[in-house]
Amino acid sequence: MNDPLARPRPIRSLCHRLPPIVALLLSVTVITVGMLLPPTHWPSHGALLCILLAALSLARVPFRVVAGRLAIFLAFALLFAVSVPLSQGFRGGWEIAQGILCRGTESFLSGLWLISVVPFDRLLATLRRLYVPAILLAILAFMYRFLFVLWDELDTMRAARRARTFDRAGLVFRWHNAAQMIGMLLIRSLGRSERVYGAMCARGWDGTLRTLDE
Amino acid sequence: MNPSTAETVLEVSGLSFSYPNGRQALDGVRFSLRHGEILGIVGPSGAGKSTLLLHLNGLLPLRPEPTRASTNGAAVHVAGLSVGAANLAEVRRRVGFLFQDPDDQLFCPTVRDDVAFGPLNLGLPRAEVERRVVESLSAVGLEGFESRSTLQLSLGERKRVCLAGVIACQPLILALDEPFSNLDPRARRALVDVLRRFEGSQIIATHDLDVVVELCNRVLVLDEGAIRADGAPAVVLGDQALMERHGLEVPLRLQLLRNPPQ
């Protein structure tokens, strides 16, 4: 079973023992350094990537996880990067494309490291202490909470679908199926958000986020 | 406020409601609830049980405007307050609502944050909120769960955390939508024990008729949006003809009382 939303497992590494604020600052520093380096200076970007990979292995993030997530990220980043030279008829813009790829990958790996070593609720608490606006934090908290719920829902739908698909194959058939499932998931998510909002109203929600840690 | 045992805490008078697709979900529902009463609402699926509960703290109708609402004006009163746009906050303070699916209700990263959500919205001071979190978690038998992640709880635990979040607001009435569905016997037993200790009124919509006999002191049979029977659980649920007419069956507990196994 390859669960892309691997549940947090208790790993104790050197990185996990860092105070959350230190991990957050390290991660932001790496991203800032990546932004400041000239996009075509390969040795410095190479060094930064090596540092990031070393940090990920120190945090015992499995290589499979890093590679899998990087592949998804690169698929989007490449499209985005290529769009710049494309808009100039491939006569220029390669430098910007390089910048997007290098800096994007560095930021992505740095973020991956951060969420691997700091539990999500502690990360939110740290961001709150740094005066990140409450509404952003609320959105992050909701996203993290309901990602798992929706993923489980999708899993159930897929299992139910598989149980009745038998061995019918074919690309068009599978795409058709996937499209239906995505549509269904969207509608279920809308229904779910409606119920969650109702449940929040039932406990006195008036649009202001209040937490115990303020 | 210290209501005497005879005081009416909830008055539903002629409540009708139809969904936007035209389906009549409630049709002239009329009943009242006294302080401390535990009322079971039973009926086949689609009878209007959840719809009725959602009206008790104003989650339905969605737009309480006189022009669009299909509900008669102020058909529900909670402790003398009419349930409507003007009194929503006060009404929701008095009626605690437990949703069927705990994932609809639990949305904070940790148990402590989630139980504190209601009391914080009531504007209580932090020390009081902290006290209520500890108290309500211990009331549902989950002492020491404060820092646990809401993602790592069993279904029974999640239901009880939800209940703690509702109890922490100290409501006058608990409205529970299918609280026992999908629970294993131990989790179900734990929940029944928690509810038995709660000192307010309760309205429990459920298919678990055995629990109704055990826990409730009154039961309503709801079918096609209208109340078909109202009385003591042993009498109402023991009426085989009535039960069969509304897609239910006499709970095993009562069958055994009547025809003990040889």
What is the secondary structure topology, with strand pairs?
The complex is a heterodimer of chains A (214) and B (262).
Chain A lengths: L19 H17 L5 H17 L4 H25 L6 H24 L2 H10 L4 H32 L5 H32 L12
Chain B lengths: L7 E11 L5 E11 L3 E5 L6 H8 L19 E3 L2 E2 L5 H7 E4 L3 H4 L5 H11 L4 H14 L15 H13 L5 E5 L7 H13 L3 E5 L3 H7 L2 E6 L2 E6 L1 H4 L3 H6 L6 H7 L4
Parallel strand pairs in B: 3-8, 3-9, 6-7, 7-8
Antiparallel strand pairs in B: 1-2, 1-4, 4-5, 9-10
Plain-language structure description:
The complex is a heterodimer of chains A (214) and B (262). Chain A is mainly alpha-helical. Chain A folds into 2 domains: 99 residues, no CATH class; 71 residues, no CATH class. Helices cover 73% and strands 0% of the residues of chain A. Chain A has 7 helices and no strands. The longest helix of chain A is centred in the last third of the chain and has 32 residues. The radius of gyration of chain A is 21 Å and the shape is globular. In chain A, 16% of the residues are buried. Chain B is α/β, with parallel strands linked by helices. In chain B, 36% of the residues lie in helices and 22% in strands. Chain B contains 11 helices and 10 strands. In chain B, α4 crosses α5, α4 packs parallel to α6 and α5 packs across α6. The longest helix of chain B has 14 residues. About 3% of the residues of chain B have low confidence. Chains A and B meet through α5, α6 and α7 of A and α2, β6, α3, α4 and α5 of B.
